[in-house]
Amino acid sequence: MKNFRALILAAAAALFLSATAAAAPTVSLKAPANNASYLQPATFAASASATASSGTTLTKVEFYAGTTLIGTDTTSPYSISWTNVPAGVHSLTAKAWDNTGAATTSAVRTITVSAINTAPTASLSAPANNSTWVTPASITVSATAKAPETNDTIAKVEFYAGATLIGTDATSPYSISWASPPAGVHTLTAKSYDGQGGVTTSAVRTVTVNAANLPPTVSLSAPANKSSWVSPAAITVSATAKAPETNDTVAKVEFYAGATLIGTDTTSPYSISWASPPAGVHTLTAKAYDGQGGVTTSAARMVTVYAENLPPTVSLSGPANNSTWVSPASITVSATAKAPETNDTVAKVEFYAGATLIGTDTTSPYSISWASLPAGVHTLTAKAYDGQGGVTTSAARTVTVSTSNDPPSVSLTAPAAGSSYTGPGEHHACRQRIRRRRQHRRRRVLQRRHPHRHRHPRRWQLYVHMEQRPRRQLQPACPRRRQPGRVHRLRAGRRDRHRPATPAGRRRRLLRLRRPPQHPAGDYRRHQQGRVALGFRLRRGCGERRPGWGRAEVQV
Questions:
Q1: What CATH number did the domain enclosing 185 receive?
Q2: CA–CA distance, 229 with 294 (Å, rounded to integer)
Q3: CA 331, CA 324: separation in Å to the nearest integer?
Q4: Would the pTM of this model clear 0.70, i.e. be above it?
Q5: What is the pLDDT of residues 469-496, one digit of tens each?
Q6: How many helices (H) and strands (E) does the chain have?
Q7: Of these four, 1, 17, 214, 456, which has the most CB atoms within 10 Å of its CB?
Q8: Residue that is last in its domain, among 306, 339, 357
Q9: Is 416 part of a structural domain of the chain?
Q10: Residue partners of 23: CB distance under 8 A and separation at least 6
């Protein structure tokens, strides 16, 4: 029983808490505006709107700057006056309380208080930049100006032409009337002053005042140049016209066919309807008059009016000529058709296979679908009718419908027949193979000539240059006699077969062969004045008279 009572009390408490939470009041800030700016010393009103839930009453509304309480109000409308606001950015909130102790906090609004005044903004709004005027003129010069701080105002706005003050206005909207400006080019600016003495000058606008009137501009916009018409016709002739000066207007526009006036219009857009023009070629112009008496004639446009109707033009656009189809087939037959006169239209286009009508279309683009066509060769044409009864037949196109399918045709387009290509690295591999073959052939020849010399393939060679000696010359090691001034190849020893060949050992050196003085038997190496002397014994060979010593020098 006790547990049951405890459960009942807990449920009642939960319901009471939920009702209390649901009964919280609502509150929102009304002032100041979010992101508003103020200048020190600042005093402004903070206000809020709050509503209690059903069955409760509001007791108070508190106002906070961050977490600091800045004021409380217990009666509606809820507001306070915050004075001597310190400089900085402040986050304002309002908290509403009801008689049950429930409270709600409003959304945050941010304000900025500046210790230093910010200059106002200023910009010209009239007249238009680079506008032109004619004397006598009266130009309205206006500007927009604003103080960035909420507690600051615009004291006045001054207007200047160059460095000359031409007017001042202290109330918004800020504007003056500049009467009788002198002829010339003028640079206009506006200078705004706020309540703290801040000053800002606007961007420049340039106006030109002409002493003499400029004639208006005019050009024909309709009908199209070189257009054709069939009588009876009603042609709309229109033009655009404008006075170059801002304080001038277009008084009227006259329309001419040759030298004959065919109509006048005094309001924009300027146009007339030329009814029943005679047959022939006509030259149309427009003449504009401005308020100062200036006159300008437009460029001419040519129109042709025919007494008799011209037949329409028509041509087949599909299917392709000499195309082949396999049965069953459904071919789309299309054509382009046009009436040459501007005031005429194409009434319909008929499509024929030989003399048989296979379809008709009355709207552009003109096309039909020819289904279940019989096998054979068909000649297609299109016949166009215009609104005046003119008829034109297009050029014929031929299509072939086959009962059996023909295999497709295919041919290679690349590479060219008989062409050859080289893969990556093939040139290098070819050179290596050719070099190895040549070395092998040379080695076999030398082995046949001198079998006792070529027993091991790893013998390095020196390219030496025979030099003319006044006395005993080195005898050649082969039947062909060595000659001075020629490059010969001599074997200078055997490599160590247990050591790998080094690049230096394979390198060819151009040496000079000289006859050294007599030395003991054996190889030698010595350094003389930065040169390396390489000694080697010349082996006895075919045609060699006696063994000897050679000396080769190479610059280090």
A1: 2.60.40.10
A2: 34
A3: 11
A4: no
A5: 444 444 444 444 444 444 444 444 444 4
A6: 3, 42
A7: 214
A8: 306
A9: no
A10: 53, 54, 55, 56, 98, 100, 102
